[in-house]
Amino acid sequence: MAANEDAAHEFAPKKKPPSEDEKRKKKIVPGSLMKALMRPGGGDAGPSDGDQIIYHCTIRTLDGVLVESTRSDYGGKGIPIRHVLGKSKMLLGLLEGIPSMLKGEVAMFKMKPQLHYGEDDCPVSAPDGFPKDDDLHFEIELIEFFKAKARMVVREGQGWESPREPYEVKAWISAKTVTGKLIMSHTEGEPYFFTFGKSEVPKGLEMAIGTMVREEKAVIYVTSQYLTESPLMPVIEGYDEVHFEVELVHFIQVRDMLGDGRLIKCRIHDGKGDFPMDCPLHDSLLRVHYKGTVLNEEKRVFYDTRVDNDGQPLEFYSGEGLVPEGFEMSVRLMLPGEIALVTCPPDYAYDKFPRPVNVPEGAHIQWEIELLGFETPKDWTGLDFKSIMNEAENIRNTGNRLFKEGKYELAKAKYEKVLREFNHVNPQDDEEGKFFADTRNLLHLNVAACHLKLGECRKSIETCNKVLEANPAHVKGLYRRGMAYMAAGDFEEARADFKMMMKVDTSTESDATAALQKLKQKEQDVEKKARKQFKGLFDKKPGEIAEAKADVDGDLITSEIQKDDEVHGDSDGTNSEDSHEAPPEAQRTGWFSLFWPSGRRLFESLGINRCTIL
Predict the structure, then answer these.
(1) Contact 48, 148 (CB under 8 A)
(2) Residue 9 maps to a domain
């Protein structure tokens, strides 16, 4: 009996060790990932390990504030994400949640921080400024997935990255019928070259190649449903299924940086490390060689660091506006040792940057860039309080320079970087505490100024509130918020802030008076606009007006004179004006918000006591 047990134990199949993804999934606790179905999908099963998944992702805070999105409607590039389940580096919540979806399904996943970028040792690096410590909503649309059973791996490849749109691919490809008859072959001479996403190979073949890695060899089974016409295989009639033998020789990473085909980064030599974890961070010191060419008929080289800079590389800090925007955007997506060819439009090259004398205005530029290496930002861990505040002041001064140059986004990023670092600073006494609090307030107000310059009035107000909640008498906070209120058309709130300035500090009377005068002028300007817009309405006496409509930049304003009992009150005793006004959000739409409530007072003065904004 014992011998039989030993034999059974000896021949029992060995248990496969858990994969890294399986180990990660064990960290999921109940309630940390929740799913809500927004639109049902089709089919009987969802994707599984080895499948390529194609999906759109929109991330919001629990309050509905947009964080980032792949959709062009929400500021993204409009290019969906492609991952391979079990191979690609993915957020834990998506790794667990997407397999529960069907093709075409839209679902909302609520994730705790440990399910997205807040996971310990998360394999995916968080974008700059990402709220990785917050609960977030991930809206996922599963566009397509390609079943693993349609591909058989003959030889494992190298690395983890797979080609996707618009990568350039080189592969040995041959095609046979199910009976083994050769249809076509590209296995001699040069590998077949195609651009991913341009229908240059059959759809099913492209989808499967999108799950492969460099040097992998596989047999791919494509049914007639996915056998589309292409330059590789122009004739597809008569084939129910085709077997493709593919060896993925190489692919070149091509990135459409803006999503509109104008700024293109093409990797021509691989770098060292894993993308994107080993790419330069914000505020890194970068060392690059580059050659710049004007893309005209002559394709004239206007600068080469190896020739014009005595062979010395260019050194610059990222995030400080020291190179053209398109140049920096591309370098920050490079690995050390990588060489890339960047084609850049004028507005991201030298039209908004000091232009070299030999570069004409409006020129399209091509840079060949080699990232030699970079130094990461200084780690503040272990620094004493004085050193930390010195570092903060240096970064703030850089932000001030960028602000004066009109580079408000870059300036804001500098101020916000220091504020993030301040979350880990603990002053040791009252003197340090006061200095720290004053500096933090100053940074918040600098951020508010950037928001205001960028036309983000509400964000500016919210940022000022962070200062005023702790110190309601903060004069500069009151002034900055008052200016933001005025820009937003909230004139009464602005007036209250400017008056409060004078109340808490009489020395600010001249500044507050000037602000109030500016506010008065703006109110008058808005009132004039209102009168001009509603000129026909104001030409009549109140009793003569039965109904009047005006279309103001898409806002429909309908005013009615009601019967005497309706004007003075409804049956429930409430004022008719109050009971029929739209919600505040509806009132403040379009530019009409600029003269509301001034416009309302105009209506009342004319006897029009009921105004509805639809």
Answers:
(1) yes
(2) no
